[in-house]
Records
---
Amino acid sequence: MSALKSVALAIQLAKVKRDAIVLQLNRFKRSQANARDQMVQLSSYSDETYEKWILASNVGVSPEIMRHQNQFMARLQEAIALQQTVINNSDADVLRAHKNFMASELKLASLEHMQKKLLSRLDSVNTRKAQKQTDEFAATKKATVFDTI
């Protein structure tokens, strides 16, 4: 009975840990989605700016403005590269959290399997005790019947 209580406690703790891991996984997934959305925004802005610059350059632009535009585009490309790093880190966080989730699910499943085996053994022991009591009762009844004859 003590082993059964221990396993039940371990299952309860494993569920709490698994739920915490699920919350963390969901936070990482939201962070990943936000990072990807920001990358889309940066890329779209870069494309739009480049297209506007192409149109403006056809009209004629001073070398000073052209230099500033090139510097701005270089900074924008740096921001995109940094955002890609953020996305890569976010992907790694999601992958690590998913692995932790799978490990916690496996542990929980094994504990639940152990609990079922313990319950089965306990049920088997109780069935044997009940059968033994029934056999003893039948034997005493039979003995009393023969004693009266």
Note: Helices lie at 2-59, 63-148.
---
Amino acid sequence: MKTQKQSFGEIYQRFFPELFVFLHGYTSSRHEIEDILQDTFLKLLSIKDFDKIQNLRGFLYFSARNAMLNRLRDNRNRERLLREMYTGTGEELTPEEEMSEEEVRLLMRYTDEAVEALPEQCREIFRMAKRDGKSYADIAIEKQLSIKTVETQMGRALQKIRSFIKEKLGKL
């Protein structure tokens, strides 16, 4: 009788290559695909009796696809947020205004640092609005605040983030 570890090894060997090809249809980033597949197989491994899953192929494809779509959505939201902070609007940049990959990575790092430096409530409200896509009204209800307070906190967050990034970029 096979142990769960042996079964997992066989499942991994069998499905990793085809899932890799499947996810390659969404992105050509080998790193992103491997990251998604690692999460997918860890999710499978976290299920106590995964060998009793009736449609294992379906489970793996469904899990991998959803993880990839979530990652792509999060990346789009992050890019939109960066554009807003870089240009002051959510408008598309002209080719002359486009940033290099290195500039985008640097800006993303500074943005993450700036968000982490925000006061707790301000940071939570900012994340709920920008990362989770919640409306100010929904945030106000969930946090039991007025909409005006949420608007003020978002204004402060954006102002502090812009200042932080400008300061960091000025030091380059």
Note: The chain has two domains: 4-74, 97-170.
---
Amino acid sequence: MVKANKYLKVCRKCRAACCKLGGPDLSEKEMKQVLKDGFRNCFRKVGKNHYELISTKGRCPYLKKDDSCEIHKVKPFICLCWPVLPKYKGNKRKYMIVECPLTPLLSKKDIEKCKKEANKIPKNILYNCWKMSSLSKAEIKLIKKRLKKFKMKELK
């Protein structure tokens, strides 16, 4: 888990581009924690133990106008592991690192922490995030276009 205060300036400078990728998919436990902490319900159930955020123009509904995270204290695992993203090749979990302004600032220890958070993401969410989405085709197209702007490479 990367400390927000340490990197908030960097994330604001890039205008939180990662938070404009539709928002994360969450497990039921993560969704319930957000609601328990008093945040508004921006969730749509898309499968067993799988919720997606209802975004507008690809923007996470919990992204504040100043490009900080409204739900930082209860961020979902996929947000906590950024810029390290889990990916499956067959049944084996691999990790990709996204090249964003934050990436060069991360130590090996930070990257290992991100991997640990990534391991907490349920496999079904990783496999099904696009397949089960109820977002409009136009919104999915916008999000995929934004995602392509990020370069990614496999972590060893």
Note: The radius of gyration is 15 Å.
